[in-house]
Amino acid sequence: MVDEPTPTRTGTAAEEPQQPIVAAPAEPTDAAAAQDASPVAAPSDSAATPPASTPSSVAPSPVVRVTTVTERAVVRHGVRTVKDSSLAEGKRVVRTKGVDGVKTLTYQVTTTDGVQTGKTLVKSVVTKQPVTEVVAVGTKKPQANCDPNYSPCVPIASDVDCAGGSGDGPAYVSGTVKVTGNDIYRLDNDNDGYGCD
Question: Is residue 97 part of a domain?
């Protein structure tokens, strides 16, 4: 039996020993890709994620109302001071008594579910004017040796008579004087409030 010669390699691909074929990973189908792309659901935490609201648990809409409200406010009266030379210095007399006025205020009030949420002034009218108080302050300087019951000055003495009259003094007054207190010298004989007239 004749030995067959060993075939020689020519280096062609057909003659190269075949390598094992490794299958490439299959491309995912659209349905599989969509399934793989969806995020993995995290463990549910009922405290952090509120439950889906159902139509029966939807909160009702708030009830908003707008109304007009009228209020009254006091308008404080002022005080005016005037000087009066017929009053003794420092003496105060109310000539006109002060009276407070009234102001009517109109507001637009907004309430939400019965709770006031807004208040806007839309109108203000003084419906009663205040009356200013007038106070007279005396500026008359006290006169030395003058009796405070008369004006102008009547000297202080044991007796005072009208000049040109039948009185014997020792002191006399010239001209008419007004009795502002007690007629201690009896100068006002006709009791009309004036002496030596």
Answer: yes
3-state secondary structure of 33: helix
The alpha carbon torsion through 153, 197, 175, 181 (nearest 10 deg) reads 0
Q: Would the pTM of this model clear 0.70, i.e. be above it?
A: no
User: How many domains in the chain?
Assistant: 2
Pair 68, 132 in one domain: yes
Report helix, strand or coil for 56. Answer: helix
E strand residue ranges, 31-158: 64-75, 79-88, 92-96, 101-112, 115-128, 133-140, 150-151
Q: Is there a single domain that holds both residue 77 and residue 131? A: yes
Q: For the segment 9-68, what is each residue's pLDDT rounded down to a tens digit?
A: 555 444 555 555 555 555 555 544 445 544 544 455 544 555 555 555 677 888 999 999
Domain hosting residue 86, numbered range: 64-139
Q: What is the pLDDT of residue 166?
A: 77
Residue 178 counted as domain residue: yes
Token duo for residue 131: 């009356």
